[in-house]
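During the second year of the project, the team shifted from modelling isolated chains to modelling whole assemblies. The rationale, set out in the original proposal, was that interfaces cannot be judged from single-chain predictions alone. As a representative example for this report, we include one of the complexes processed in the last quarter. Its constituent sequences, exactly as entered into the pipeline, are reproduced here:
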Amino acid sequence: MLPYNILVEVCVIYAALLFGVAFLAERRAKRGKLSWLRSPLVYTLSLSIYCTAWTFYGAVGYAARSGLEFLTIYLGPTLVMVGWWWVLRKLVRIGRRQRITSVADLISSRYGKSAVLGGVVTCLMVVATTPYIALQLQSVTLSFGVFARPAPEGLAMPTQSVTTIWVAIGLTVFTVLFGTRNLDANERHHGVVTAIAVEALVKLAALLAVGAFVVWGIASGPSEIMARINASPIAKVPADGSRWFALIFLSGAAFLCLPRMFQVLVVENEDERHLATASWAFPLYMALMSLFVLPIAVMGLAVLPAGSNPDLFVLTLPLSMDRNALAMLAFLGGFSSATSMVVVASIALSTMVSNHLVMPLWLGFRRGGASMSGDVRQLVLMSRRLSIAGVLALGYTYYRISGGGEALAAIGLISFVGVVQVLPAMIGGIFWRGATRIGAAAGILSGFAIWLYTLFLPSFGPDVLLSAALLDHGPGGFGWLTPQALFGLGNLDPVVHAVMWSLVMNTTAFLVGSLASFPRPLERLQGAQIVNVFDYSTGRHGWARSFVEAEDLLVMSQRIFGPREAQALFLTEALAQGKDGYLPDPTPEFIDRLERELAGSVGAATAHAMIGQIVTGASVSVQDLMAVADETAQIMEYSSQLETKSQELARTARQLRDANQKLTALSVQKDAFLSQISHELRTPMTSIRAFSEILMSEADLTDADKDRYSRIIHDEALRLTRLLDALLDLNVLEHGQATFRPETVVLRDMIDRAILSTSGVRSAQPITIVRNDASEAVILHTDVDRLSQVFINLIANARKYCVAPQARLTIRVVRVDGQTAIDFIDNGAGIPIVSQGLIFEKFSRLSDQSAAGGAGLGLAICREIMVRLGGSVSYLPGQGGAAFRVLLPQTAIIRAA
Amino acid sequence: MIDRRKPVFLERQTYRRHRLIDASRLVPLAGAFLFFVPLLWEYKVVAPDEQGFLAERMVYLFAVWFGLVVLAARIAARLRPEDFDRDHEVDVDPDSRDRG
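Output from the structure prediction step:
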């Protein structure tokens, strides 16, 4: 139809056009005019690299073979996009904060900047993407074939093979020109992204145009299409529920893990808010792309001759109706789909390869250090260019070995299952701080191995890489190890089988490995920063107290960033530090920032290693930091111990102060008592002496006078005796020499007796005693005389000192905390707070005015008695008068009331 | 230790924003359920002379799809820039703060 060379010219012109777009966009970006380059629309359209030639050609073929199942590939990403608040938001935030350059970099960063893990993920991604690249080559080759000959079938193999080689070479050149213009992978590829956005529009327009042509051009409208769909053989294909479920999950997971999707979703993201727009706009884009797929498939099956390749209906339908322009648009749409995928995928993969394979190896071989001469920039760029070529070469090899005969969708799915092996380590890594490097490596490697064995190697067909016998009966005849029927699960669809086994083993190994291993300090640090990315606003910490020469850093940076950028960076930093010239002080903050900038170019692990080589010996390792943290914790603990101790000391000091005050007060009391007691002793002695002298000297005394005088002498002698008895009593009690004679008695009788024996006490006025007989029916076994003495003292005190107009003493028996207590409460003035602490001390008297003649020993005796009996007596404040509580010893109670 | 003290109760507007984000989290769950509904439909092999009902299934799936797009768009339109910087956690749970 169209001559081959014209087709090639159209392709070259189209590619040149795209290159022009990219170039203009880059120039605009350089001038700082980013307004529309940074719009959420461009971001959304750049996501459309998810829709590759697989979508453009393969979806129709897929629909023609299995009906609606092709939709699963778009429903999964739709769920991921509308659920952006769960995972994508966090991924993007992490990507921006940690300057992540690829999936491998994310995994490596999360697990302690592990170079090994980065390398493993890179290898996995390269192998898993290979079928995908092959798919693009195959689709472009097929579409060329359609145009070059009128009929798609019967193509001569040499032509096709030659075409494929040229397509591969063309794409390589295109990608190298496009993708490796600047080194910093984190610095957005404005040009590429813009070109992809343009291609996205071309794809969509082409597919919608073909769809509209099919619905309204060939058929008469939607209703006829509906009827045709139901009548078509596709409607009779039985659907597979397990595939539906597994593929939605698989595509959603692959959407997150595919290197090229990670590139556009996370690395090229300008602004987190763009996600909000893309969350609905990208599902809309995919829905529109899928809208006409089934109608095209149905019409293709109905209109085109039997045996036509359904993967090419998008092209062959317009061609068969002689719509050459439309067919050309469709061809360009397919070409766009393939090129944009290959460009971004190989950029993403080459970044990984150079950062995680080439650079670590190079650093390893050149132990001399990163500051040695030689331009690393050239090395990195060259390694990226070579890896782009390598990736395409691998794709071509896969295409050649697999024979190029498979349906596009089947090839794509193999690739999907491979890349999602990163999922457990990725999701586990960003949500679970317990995930470790060992676990991640174990998970990825086991998943990768199972994928290779159950899906990738068998995909080449029997007797290519795996023998037919092995495929059918397992290695060495072990049936339960058959690649596509592991452990006897033979009736599962191969893809579902591989997804299930690989992810189950992967996740199990990941979890067990993480649970069983212990992370290194750097892993824990990175884990905390990544899992809690929304909590931390500051950058990473790692370098401190460095004596590194700023010049060395500049030399190294120049070789990564290029002289101009590096010098600009150092100049700004020096200015910010207030220094002249290009050499800022290598403060920890600056080295940290430099490492982040480097990570944007060569990945976190490499950047860390390179800085590490220069800052050797000067860097504080994380172990050191941990030790410092430990020390700090110890100091904090010690200081809190000191605090406790000082509080204790303060308490003791207060107690001592109190005791001192009490002692001083007591000393004053004692002085007062001595003068009092000398007074008390002298008064009766004086009377006795005076009256006895009268009796001796006066002869003419009447009998009445003699009687009166001798009575006075007797009374005064009695008073002296009482006083001395009390002193003696207290002395005996205090020295524990008193003996007790317990008897059994009813409490009520004791109180009766005590009241009776105090009735003779001189008092200002009669006192009413309030009692409750029932509660006093407590049977005690104790020293009755001593306890009675306590009661007598308390009641006598009330009689003596209660000065209320209507004096009243309440005696009540109460239960306090399971103990029996007797309260003696009067309605007098009570005892002032200042004196409450002293009343039980010896010689303590509230005032000197007491006419009662007490020596201030009564309460002291009470206390001593109660202590000896095993109970206590205390002052009970707040009862509206003087109140004393006698707590009976628990052992004394035989039966409570 | 990070200072996690935050207010326990929020003013009405902030409360609405938090619920908006909750809604945003629920959209994919609803979508997943609706996308899996076709699994529950009877998938029988249609006899050669019978008509299938593939078109109806297709219409259902696209209806759900566009429904999700509309829902997500409405939520995205109501989000404000400051919502993006909000902590990952939904709300402040005083108990968990104590434990933390």
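Strands of chain A lie at 742-746, 768-770, 779-783, 808-816, 819-826, 872-875, 883-887, 893-895. Residues 622-697 of chain A form the longest helix (76 residues).
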